[in-house]
Design goal:
This protein is globular. By secondary structure, the protein is an alpha/beta fold. It has one domain (about 25-385): TIM Barrel. It is built from 14 helices and ten strands. The structure holds (3S,4R)-3-hydroxy-2-oxopiperidin-4-yl beta-D-xylopyranoside. (3S,4R)-3-hydroxy-2-oxopiperidin-4-yl beta-D-xylopyranoside (XIL) binds near residues 82, 83 and 171. (3S,4R)-3-hydroxy-2-oxopiperidin-4-yl beta-D-xylopyranoside (XIL) binds near residues 82, 83 and 340.
Length: about 400
């Protein structure tokens, strides 16, 4: 019953969105909720405590698939472009910038009272082939590469100036080894040195001084047993801050897998450590994958995964809720059939909050309960007139 109410309201909200464009877009940054969303939605509950809950949006589905679009509109008050703000999407041909799909997402977000996480300016993946080819065949020198990167960051951040809440300026620069370090073989580091990370933040800040600038990575808040990567990232971001580099936040992606151990307490402590050093923190790409029967149905092969999967989502949310500086919790992909997991991790899936038929799973309910508890607390017990 709850589900059909949510679905119906979802369709209604999409239908009325055109009429509410003006009112919502002018207050999008200030408003923490949207008047037409269900009161038990993740976003409505999160907004009670000033938290933003989000998802990674696939622009091939937004405004195309009504169920998908309704969930994005009704459940989330921040959105991240899953791919359309990455460099290969923005500049597939050198010098020809294509902001169309990303602009469409920003417009959708403004119409629905959502803030946008910009993702991502400097990463070793999904960079244009003209760039990697030019670097490998020597037609682009390191000095030119640096200028091209500066231009890219400046162009993209300037284009979206005032419209992006948080930018993932640098993504995935650390090794997974113990001890961890900035990866010397990373595309950007190997050509431009480690100083490029600080420069990227400076260039982004110059182009939009009000955007919150994040370092984003996986396994940097309690997910790896040794905590080596979290320690290494902590050392870098605190050093950058001490040097006056404009870095505001640390994003922990939160890509979990039930086959590995995970400590929510450790995550909370690591998030708090960044926070105590003056950073905002965010869970930026939460999903919890597990082994499944096949990629179409995505039924977990181990019955215990039905418990582990929502539990790990719940633990991540509780870690975020415990830390005042944790300002957003973004899930990576809306439902299991559009999740990136089956295509990347052989045999795995079931990673999101909604199943392949867009039905909310236990993980959805658990996050809803967590957020309701945070928003309202537990209901006061019924009284008894004789015993107090
Ligand atoms: C993934 C997208 O989900 C896929 O659609 C794409 O093919 C590859 O990238 N860490 C990140 C994200 O920072 O950008 C990645 O997104 C997932 C891992």
């Amino acid at each position: 019953m709850q589900l059909s109410r949510r679905k119906l309201t979802g369709i209604a909200a999409v239908a009325v969105s055109a009429a509410t464009v003006v009112a919502v877009s002018t207050s999008a940054i200030a408003s923490s909720s949207h008047s037409r969303v269900p009161s038990d939605s993740l976003r409505a509950l999160a907004s009670k405590i000033g938290l933003r809950v989000g998802n990674a949006v696939n622009m091939d589905l937004l405004n195309v698939n009504a169920t998908y679009t309704g969930i994005v509109a009704n459940q989330f008050n921040t959105v991240t472009p899953e791919n359309v703000m990455k460099w290969d999407a923005i500049e597939p041909t050198q010098g020809q910038l294509n902001f169309g799909p990303a602009d469409a997402l920003v417009k959708f977000a403004q119409q629905h009272g959502q803030l946008v996480r910009g993702h991502t300016l400097m990463w070793h993946n999904q960079i244009p082939s003209w760039l990697t080819t030019g670097v490998s065949n020597g037609t682009i020198t390191n000095a030119q590469l640096r200028n091209i990167l500066k231009q890219h960051i400046t162009d993209e951040v300037t284009h979206f100036k005032g419209k992006i809440w948080q930018w993932d300026v640098a993504n995935e620069f650390f090794t997974d080894s113990n001890p961890s370090m900035i990866n010397p073989n990373d595309f950007w580091i190997s050509h431009l040195g480690t100083g490029i990370i600080a420069d990227a933040f400076r260039w982004a800040h110059a182009a939009d001084p009000h955007a919150l600038l994040f370092y984003n990575d996986y396994n940097i808040a309690g997910e790896d047993g040794s905590n080596a990567k979290a320690d290494a990232v902590y050392a870098m971001v605190t050093q950058l801050k001490k040097q006056g580099v404009p870095i505001d936040g640390v994003g922990d992606q939160g890509h979990l897998d039930t086959q590995y151990g995970f400590s929510g307490t450790r995550m909370r402590d690591d998030l708090q450590r960044y926070a105590n050093a003056g950073f905002r923190v965010a869970i930026t790409e939460a999903d919890v994958r597990t082994f499944v029967n096949n990629s179409t149905d995505q039924v977990p092969t181990d019955n215990l995964a039905l418990f582990a999967q929502p539990y790990e989502f719940d633990q991540m949310m509780k870690a975020c809720l415990a830390v005042r500086q944790c300002i957003s919790f973004t899930i990576w992909d809306v439902n299991d059939s559009n999740s990136w997991v089956p295509g990347v991790f052989a045999g795995e899936g079931y990673a999101t909050l909604y199943d392949v038929n867009y039905q909310p799973k236990q993980a959805y309910t658990d996050l809803q309960v967590d957020l309701a508890g945070a928003a309202f607390g537990a209901p006061h017990r019924v009284g008894d007139s004789h015993f107090h």
